[in-house]
Amino acid sequence: xxxxxxxxxxxxxxxxxxxxxxxxxxxxxxxxxxxxxxxxxxxxxxxxxxxxxxxxxxxxxxxxxxxxxxxxxxxxxxxxxxxxxxxxxxxxxxxxxxxxxxxxxxxxxxxxxxxxxxxxxxxxxxxxxxxxxxxxxxxxxxxxxxxxxxxxxxxxxxxxxxxxxxxxxxxxxxxxxxxxxxxxxxxxxxxxxxxxxxxxxxxxxxxxxxxxxxxxxxxxxxxxxxxxxxxxxxxxxxxxxxxxxxxxxxxxxxxxxxxxxxxxxxxxxxxxxxxxxxxxxxxxxxxxxxxxxxxxxxxxxxxxxxxxx
Amino acid sequence: xxxxxxxxxxxxxxxxxxxxxxxxxxxxxxxxxxxxxxxxxxxxxxxxxxxxxxxxxxxxxxxxxxxxxxxxxxxxxxxxxxxxxxxxxxxxxxxxxxxxxxxxxxxxxxxxxxxxxxxxxxxxxxxxxxxxxxxxxxxxxxxxxxxxxxxxxxxxxxxxxxxxxxxxxxxxxxxxxxxxxxxxxxxxxxxxxxxxxxxxxxxxxxxxxxxxxxxxxxxxxxxxxxxxxxxxxxxxxxxxxxxxxxxxxxxxxxxxxxxxxxxxxxxxxxxxxxxxxxxxxxxxxxxxxxxxxxxxxxxxxxxxxxxxxxxxxxxxxxxxxxxxxxxxxxxxxxxxxxxxxxxxxxxxxxxxxxxxxxxxxx
Lengths: 309, 362
Description:
Chain A is mainly α.
């Protein structure tokens, strides 16, 4: 008996590896190899124009003491500004998306006429490619021809046109607004899916017991959808820490709105400094990995652990 | 404690009428059971009393007060759901206390109440557990505890035992009966299980297709079913029905011809039947005898089911009807052999073609 069981278990493990093999192979080629190559380049002085000839220079791209001065990425104030700006962007946009996503999901979970149509319509911003929606918003926010200035002027809220993208603070808020507009549907969709899994009879019990709906929301709904909410927020946080296309389309390389990704691209492509750009990319990777890890640990999210039911 | 009164209550969902003109008065402290097949509207009727659904017409009164337009929390009710409806992320203690925290009661007061209820239901050692760590019976007790702790005027039970296995169901049934004896609160209990209805109820309401077929004490429904539906529904082994023809009618007696030619004088109260009228004769399997008085039906015994203390024998009557008899163990009936079922006249029921019963004498 025992031998048979073990044989069966071994057979299952072998089958599992067999099914996983294609995925692992593809991951190794499209994720593992570029990642390792980027990390390797970050220790070299490679340049984009000639990737064949480079020297290993150790941690010089990260930090180096040279003729009485600290040099390298970790000593570059522009890099640190990009880091804090990106983290600020992630915190602000993901918080707004969580609240709005919850409101939208609760609304879509209620019963009303044409609910199916509204559920489909709300997904449109999420379905549009970021490049397209960023371009669209760039036009809408244009200081001279933009519909937003036109409308605000017409309503008398503004007395003169605002150059939304010229002021770095305003520009970052514009980026946040566009990001919220685009990705709230995603958060709402994940929360809606969780809401639909909730046990309906608990709500009837709460109604019979006369518990106020607001209290039911905070004491019953929120704890029960917390796992789904945290998954949605981790997805969103990872996305927004990597934010690139939105900012690049809206404000190009403007120093006042650079995110970590935009900074890395500028070093790597515009300045041709593959070594330095790779170092920035590697740090970006580490920052995201650390933040994710701490969120998972702090949220005590048992990924793959026991369910709530 | 309070009485519950339903006056001409109707409920429609879109164009389907689920409850038709239900008129019912449930006395203070009464244990009333709604019973009927699935889809008969019994759960809907309970939800109307609870206020989870609104009536389409008619009115509902609890404790003499019209609550038709009131939300559930103002009706003084507590409900136990079929699926228990416990909050999965709260401990037993939190589940029981959750409904109390609204009332601005102090923490110590709430805790005392929760512990008292837990004590009666033997839940004290489980207070810190989550619902998923409990067995079905324990969860059901928590759900009942959550209802008790609110000290409602009326308890509503929606098929509370149907998710439990058979032995646990009997045990919980006894606990609920004991609970009613000690609390003396009005209880309305919905079930599709007529055994639960018979054992628990002071009064049974038999529902069918949104209508009340009959209301009465369990024994009354058992002895004097008003129509074919109630006769077939009440009784743990279904009543046998045989098509017969009235051959004569004297004072208090209707003579019917059985399939196979035998005649039977069935005692009735009041008016009899017209000679020649097509009737349905009903007799419960536990009243069928293998020998003794009364006319007999002969035919092959098709199946004998052994239940240990007794047997269920199935006999094919001359007209093709399959008759069931509950007979004591050791009766010498063999499958495939001819047999005779005797029908004691006093145990027989007669029904007219429209399904209504001829009143019985006893």
